[in-house]
Design brief:
alpha/beta; Rossmann fold; six-stranded mixed β-sheet; binds adenosine-5'-triphosphate
């Protein structure tokens, strides 16, 4: 399972590939606060990888390291076999890493369709000058291609009936689905989901779970998610990293992690030495 090249088969028959990203001995400090302390783990092609842990464990900080938003104080991020140099988050996005946010970050006044189109920005080759000469420069053809990709995602996530609706008018669960659609529009090779089910009712959670699994199945999207709802995590994930006080206390398939005494203690709030 830890071999760098081989994959493995899941119990439900999905093929998980080789390692796409490796986090090696990551430490992240904010002044005197150590948010992440010497954590290593890997992410494999096509898997659903969860990061869980109590409040303040360092999960969001870790997602921000993966997305390139934070540069670790120590340690290395390896992506597709090469050490990733320090780079701005939009460069990381261009490398194929897209994300959703804990607090929804959409443009309320814009339609669902236009919000999802913004997810294509990293894919757009024609710049502003080309847009000015829209037809002659081939920008029109490019725009058609982007729209076709976006329409496919809209169909897939079953949001055709709200494509013209301003996002600000949508209920919470649908906004989260639009955010997922926008991230998918970037055709990510790694999709990062920061608490995709937070604040949802049971029905909305079931829908979101189904969509995450369907996206993984249909597009083979490697997915890393942070989630508080343990039931959801255990149902969805292939492998789970457990963090507590900035340290890694567990890493493995859900059943293994569920029976790990350190994990049980962390969730029951057992005091540290
Ligand atoms: N920008 C920052 N500046 C200073 N300290 C920070 C910053 N971001 C996070 N921290 C601290 O780092 C630690 C880990 O925070 P982080 O938000 O990563 O945890 P978390 O597991 O995502 O928590 P939650 O589940 O509550 O969202 C906390 O002690 C937090 O206060």
């Amino acid at each position: 399972m830890n071999d760098m090249t081989d994959g493995y088969m899941t119990a439900d028959g999905r093929k998980i590939g080789g390692v796409v990203m490796e986090l090696k001995n990551i430490t992240l400090k904010f002044g005197g606060v150590t948010a992440i302390s010497d954590i290593s783990f890997d992410i494999r092609e096509g898997e659903i990888r969860a990061i869980i842990g109590p409040n303040g464990a360092g999960k969001s900080s870790m997602l921000n390291v993966i997305s390139g938003f934070y540069i670790p104080t120590e340690g290395e991020v390896w992506y597709r076999g090469a050490r990733r140099p320090q780079m701005r988050p939009y460069k990381v996005a261009q490398m194929g890493i897209a994300r959703t946010f804990q607090n929804i970050a959409l443009f309320d006044g814009m339609s669902v369709l236009d919000n999802i189109m913004t997810g294509r920005l990293t894919k757009m080759k024609k710049g502003l000058f080309a847009q000015a000469g829209w037809w002659f420069t081939g920008a029109a053809k490019e725009e058609d291609e982007h729209r076709a990709k976006v329409e496919k995602i809209i169909d897939f996530l079953e949001i055709q009936n709200i494509r013209k609706t301003p996002v600000g008018r949508l209920p919470y669960g649908l906004k989260k689905r639009v955010e997922l659609a926008r991230a998918l529009a970037a055709e990510p090779s790694i999709l990062l989901l920061d608490e995709p089910m937070a604040g949802m009712n049971v029905e909305e959670k079931e829908d979101m779970c189904r969509f995450i699994l369907d996206v993984n199945d249909e597009f083979g999207t490697t997915t890393v998610l942070i989630e508080h709802d343990m039931g959801v995590v255990m149902d969805l994930s292939d492998r789970v990293v457990v963090m507590d006080y900035g340290r890694k206390i567990g890493d493995g398939p859900p059943d293994e992690v569920r029976n790990n005494q350190d994990v049980i203690d962390a969730y029951l709030g057992v005091a540290h030495d």
